[in-house]
């Protein structure tokens, strides 16, 4: 039965704490009694010189009594350990839900209502005279609170069920016979139950499947649980067999949406748990032999269904798991190396081993998530895994990475070397990306299926260059010498527009946004006296002006990347201008240079965009407008902008498919006013609108430059308004306008018709 939110708030955990203390006392006393029984009466009975029937009966009685006392100690300790862990976890959950209900809800003006089945509904209470109109920020805050409370209740419900089950098994059904299931922790009990359910395989009912997912969801990042769970499956081959059967059963057909949803949850949960269990820094963890065995199984058929016409290779099944979880490099990188080497030798090795479905049931496979491929191409899978594993991704793409050469069977090929590195291999123009799909070969859909590989490569490069998983909802920018070196290669590689394909362009845009500070510095030729020069060069890239311009021009040809860089520059420029004001006044020379450089970046992007419209027609500009308007949904949906630790984070907005973007702010910028200014800056980027169908390409190009100048001028306008600077003062205001004009014209190669700075 699901717990109600008031149950969790009102439960007196002090009584549970007392029970824990009492059971600890019982454990200690029973331990002493068991030792005394073993060392006392049992030892004496064994030494006694008894004979006859009485001796046999007496010795047997003493032995049985000694065992029962020991069993009582074991049972008491099991109960104590489970209750102790339950108290610790429930106390934490109770504290969190009290904060949510008693502090956060009143602050928001929200009421919390129990709607049954362990769930609540949050709503704004009507107040007489109130219009009941709420901002999107308020609505989103209410939804976040509701989701948070429901997660806390679900976690508490799972703990309650696990504890009840563990206590029943510890006690058993015979009140006269102690000693049954024994646990050293609540994790032990939960991993045992998870193993019991996993042994059912596809025979699990939806209710049992839901229970397994619930246990795994809350414990996947716990090393004790995850390690025990994977050991309970048997080993690497048994793991692949279990997951493979579950994935195929869950993705078969299109009718059972609930089963598919449960299978998707299992994929994510098992992936996170595998990452935890294989991390050598965790205690406990799986032995290194698991990684070695996975490599050996990688090219071997896994006979999931005996007698089936074809069986998947181990890597095809494993790929579904390693798409999720932050993996240690010691585990995932050898697998990634082996997969890339296999592809280099035979690009179709894995794709030749997929079922022939005649174009039906296209989701059937080992990637229930449905994101980037059906799951038959492990290359895409390992790149997705690296996209969630920043440290591993950095090591994989690093210049000083010394490849290990593997035989086809996954064993090390001693003394062998490669004549390529993985970055160069995967980013070369003619790389043969597999089409991970069950569609008909040669169809348009088959061609599109090849987009999954570059998309996954972009995710892996994001993790390597930015230091956080590409879809991390709460990222922290973590650039170091290794990630910077990789980003410098990215800027060089993708400065060639022929290398930039649409599937990877959104990742390149987010990478560029994450290095917008260094792109500004690059346009200053990375001079040490530049105002953009970092105080500490560690973690900063030196692109140089030529490479920075080529990169911006290249990715500016792609709508998503254009929008990301444009938004990032306006935010960075706003922060940089704000940092030029202190008690002594405004640093006018620096302010002028910030405006000029920012306008040049926007001009480079707009020139690239205009050229694309010239080449592809008016329809192309609709894509740019759509991307820009989608980015502005950050404001419409009230997601807000979090500014801390030297970066502004524009969080994901799932409702409109906007990915999160982390943007460095100027090194000396404060947070207060900047947080308020960023919203208007983002909105200004939606200024460009598609002209009607009668518009000419030249008209549209003019509109692109006009709107681009508005975007470039947005930080300037905010700065001038905040600091009382006027356009017509003939002094500093005119200087800023001239800086904007000169920078923008330089970026557009002089094509833009210079006009006046838009008035506030």
Please sum up the structure shown.
With 760 residues, the chain is mainly alpha-helical. It has helices at 5-10, 13-47, 52-108, 136-171, 186-198, 206-219, 223-233, 236-251, 257-277, 289-297, 314-322, 329-345, 378-387, 390-397, 422-427, 444-449, 452-466, 481-493, 502-514, 516-523, 544-555, 559-578, 588-616, 618-631, 633-636, 672-684, 697-723, 732-747; strands at residues 110-116, 119-124, 581-582, 585-586, 642-644, 647-650, 661-664. Helix 8 crosses helix 11 (314-322), helix 12 (329-345) crosses helix 14 (390-397) and helix 23 (588-616) packs across helix 24.
* Strand runs, count: 7
* Arrangement of strands in the largest sheet: 5-6-7
- Largest sheet: number of strands, sense, barrel closure: 3 strands, antiparallel
Approximate helicity band? 55-70%
Chain-averaged pLDDT: 85
Quote the distance from N terminus to C terminus: 60 Å
Description:
By secondary structure, this protein is mostly helical. The protein has 28 helices and seven strands. The protein has helices spanning about 5-10, 15-45, 50-110, 135-170, 185-200, 205-220, 225-235, 235-250, 255-275, 290-295, 315-320, 330-345, 380-385, 390-395, 420-425, 445-450, 450-465, 480-495, 500-515, 515-525, 545-555, 560-580, 590-615, 620-630, 635, 670-685, 695-725, 730-745; strands at about 110-115, 120-125, 580, 585, 640-645, 645-650, 660-665. It has a three-stranded antiparallel β-sheet with strand order 5-6-7. The chain has a two-stranded antiparallel ribbon with strand order 1-2. It has a two-stranded antiparallel ribbon with strand order 3-4. Helix 14 (about 390-395) packs across helix 17. The longest helix has about 55 residues, at about 50-110. The chain is globular. The two termini are about 60 Å apart. The model is unreliable at about 685-695 and about 755-760 (pLDDT under 50).
């Amino acid at each position: 039965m699901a717990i109600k939110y008031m149950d969790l708030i009102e439960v007196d955990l002090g009584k549970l704490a007392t029970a824990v203390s009492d059971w600890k006392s019982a454990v200690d006393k029973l331990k002493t009694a068991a030792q005394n029984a073993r060392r006392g009466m049992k030892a004496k009975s064994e030494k006694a010189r008894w004979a006859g029937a009485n001796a046999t009966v007496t010795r047997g009685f003493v032995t049985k009594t000694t065992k029962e006392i020991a069993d009582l100690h074991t049972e008491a300790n099991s109960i104590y350990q489970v209750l102790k862990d339950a108290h610790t976890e429930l106390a934490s959950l109770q504290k969190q839900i009290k904060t949510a209900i008693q502090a956060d809800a009143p602050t928001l003006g929200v009421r919390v209502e129990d709607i049954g089945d362990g769930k609540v509904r949050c709503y704004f209470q009507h107040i007489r005279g109130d219009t009941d109109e709420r901002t999107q920020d308020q609505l989103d805050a209410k939804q976040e609170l509701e989701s948070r409370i429901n997660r806390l209740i679900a976690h508490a419900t799972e703990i309650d069920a696990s504890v009840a089950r563990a206590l029943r098994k510890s006690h058993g059904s015979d009140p006269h016979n102690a000693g049954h299931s024994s646990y050293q922790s609540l994790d032990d009990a939960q991993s045992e139950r998870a193993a019991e359910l996993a042994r059912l395989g596809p025979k699990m009912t939806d209710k049992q499947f839901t229970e397994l997912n619930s246990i795994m969801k809350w414990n996947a990042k716990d090393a004790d649980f995850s390690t025990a769970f994977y050991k309970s499956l048997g080993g690497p081959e048994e793991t692949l067999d279990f997951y493979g059967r579950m994935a195929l059963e869950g993705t078969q057909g299109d009718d059972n949406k609930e089963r598919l949803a449960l299978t998707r949850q299992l994929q994510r949960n098992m992936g996170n748990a595998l990452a935890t269990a294989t991390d050598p820094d965790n205690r406990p963890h799986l032995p290194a032999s698991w990684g070695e065995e996975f490599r050996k199984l990688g090219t071997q058929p896994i006979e999931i269904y005996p007698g089936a016409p074809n069986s998947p290779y181990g890597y095809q099944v494993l790929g579904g798991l390693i798409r999720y979880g932050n993996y240690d490099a010691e585990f995932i990188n050898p697998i990634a190396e082996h997969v890339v080497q296999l592809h280099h030798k035979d690009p179709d090795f894995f794709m030749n081993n997929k079922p022939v479905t005649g174009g039906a049931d296209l989701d059937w496979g080992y990637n229930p998530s449905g994101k980037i491929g059906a799951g038959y191409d492990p290359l895409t899978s390992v790149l997705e895994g690296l996209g969630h594993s920043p440290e591993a991704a950095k090591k994989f793409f690093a210049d000083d990475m010394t490849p290990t050469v593997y035989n086809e069977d996954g064993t090390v090929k001693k003394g062998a070397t490669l004549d390529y590195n993985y970055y160069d291999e995967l980013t070369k123009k003619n790389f043969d990306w597999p089409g991970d799909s069950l569609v008909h070969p040669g169809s348009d859909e088959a061609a599109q299926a090849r987009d999954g590989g570059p998309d996954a490569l972009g995710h892996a490069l994001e993790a390597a260059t930015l230091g956080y998983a590409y879809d991390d909802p709460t990222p922290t920018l973590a650039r170091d010498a290794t990630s910077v070196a990789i980003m410098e290669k990215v800027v060089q590689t993708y400065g060639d527009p022929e290398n930039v394909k649409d599937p990877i362009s959104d990742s390149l845009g987010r990478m560029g946004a994450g290095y917008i500070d260094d792109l500004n510095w690059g346009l200053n030729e990375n001079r040490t006296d530049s105002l953009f020069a970092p105080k500490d060069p560690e973690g900063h890239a030196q692109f140089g002006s030529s490479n920075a311009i080529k990169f911006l021009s290249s990715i500016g040809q792609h709508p998503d990347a254009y929008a990301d860089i444009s938004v990032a520059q306006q935010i960075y420029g706003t922060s940089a201008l704000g940092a030029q004001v202190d008690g002594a006044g405004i640093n006018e020379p620096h302010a002028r240079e910030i405006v000029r450089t920012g306008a040049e970046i926007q001009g480079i992007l707009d020139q690239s965009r205009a050229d694309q419209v010239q080449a592809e027609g008016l329809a192309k500009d609709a894509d740019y407008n759509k991307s820009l308007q989608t980015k502005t949904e950050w404001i419409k949906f009230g997601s807000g902008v979090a500014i801390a630790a030297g970066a502004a984070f524009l969080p994901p907005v799932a409702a409109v498919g906007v990915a999160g973007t982390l943007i460095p702010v100027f090194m000396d910028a404060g947070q207060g006013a900047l947080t308020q200014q960023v919203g208007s800056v983002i909105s200004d980027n939606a200024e460009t609108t598609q002209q009607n169908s009668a518009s000419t390409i030249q008209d549209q190009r003019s509109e692109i430059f006009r709107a681009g100048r508005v975007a470039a001028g947005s930080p300037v306008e905010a700065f001038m308004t905040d600091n009382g600077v006027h356009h017509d003062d003939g002094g500093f205001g005119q200087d800023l306008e001239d800086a904007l004009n000169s920078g923008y014209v330089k970026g557009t190669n002089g094509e833009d018709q210079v006009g006046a700075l838009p008035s506030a």
